[in-house]
């Protein structure tokens, strides 16, 4: 069995921009909340836009998933989504996830995710429990989330106008996730290109 999900992978310039934002936030949060706050920062090379979490599947189902993704990709042209702004889940008082937001053409991304959900449902994969909410996860707050929330608020870190670049949606990738002590390691199993515009 392999743990899998469908995602849009990021290009190098956007990864670099997100890495710079992470470094700035890390420094400011350590100063404001203390260096002992436990935050797990996502490695820049691992940041991605999840379109559908599938979960554990037998390896022999990978061709079925790839075929379903190819059917969906054939009905979608390539597009670009703006990456801008910072936010948290579930709320600002006790955040558990720190993210970069997506703007411009988000509806196209939502349609793509919905079509993938439908296509994978047709071949027996359970639907997502939560609605699709586009974002790029930068960090997960593991402990003292209220202290982090207070620091983010007191230092006005989420209110800054942060334009980070663009996410080019030219392909969808089936990814494998290996859980390790240092965090998850992602490997692309296949990438299916969207239609040329």
Oligomer: single chain
Instruction: Give the structural class.
Output: alpha+beta
User: What is the 3D form?
Assistant: globular
Helix percentage:
25-40%
**Order of strands side by side in the largest beta sheet?**
2-6-5-4-7
> Per CATH, what is the topology?
Cyclic Phosphodiesterase, Chain: A
Order of helices and strands: EHEEHEEHEHEEE
CATH class division: Alpha Beta
Q: What is the number of domains?
A: 1
Question: What is the overall number of helices?
Answer: 4
Span of the ends, CA to CA: 36 Å
The residue-averaged pLDDT reads 95
Quick one: CATH superfamily?
Cyclic phosphodiesterase
CATH architecture: Alpha-Beta Complex
- The number of distinct β-strands equals 9
Rg is 17 Å
Sheet-strand content, in percent, reads 35-45%
């Amino acid at each position: 069995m392999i743990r899998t999900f469908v995602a849009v992978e990021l290009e190098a310039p956007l990864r670099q921009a997100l890495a710079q934002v992470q470094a700035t936030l890390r420094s400011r949060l350590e100063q404001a909340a203390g260096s002992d706050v436990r935050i797990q920062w996502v490695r820049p090379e691992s940041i991605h836009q999840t379109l559908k979490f599938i979960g554990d599947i037998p390896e022999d189902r990978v061709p079925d998933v790839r075929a379903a993704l190819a059917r969906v990709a054939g009905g979608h042209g390539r597009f670009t989504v703006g990456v801008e702004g910072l936010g948290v889940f579930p709320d600002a008082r006790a955040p558990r996830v720190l993210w970069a937001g997506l703007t411009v053409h988000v509806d196209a991304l939502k349609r793509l995710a919905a079509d993938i959900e439908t296509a994978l449902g047709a071949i027996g994969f359970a639907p997502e429990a939560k609605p699709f909410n586009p974002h790029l996860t930068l960090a997960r707050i593991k402990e003292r989330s209220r202290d982090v929330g207070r620091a983010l608020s007191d230092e006005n870190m989420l209110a800054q106008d942060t334009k980070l670049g663009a996410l080019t949606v030219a392909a969808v990738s089936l990814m494998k996730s290996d859980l390790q002590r240092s965090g998850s390691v992602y490997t692309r199993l296949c990438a299916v290109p969207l239609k040329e515009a």
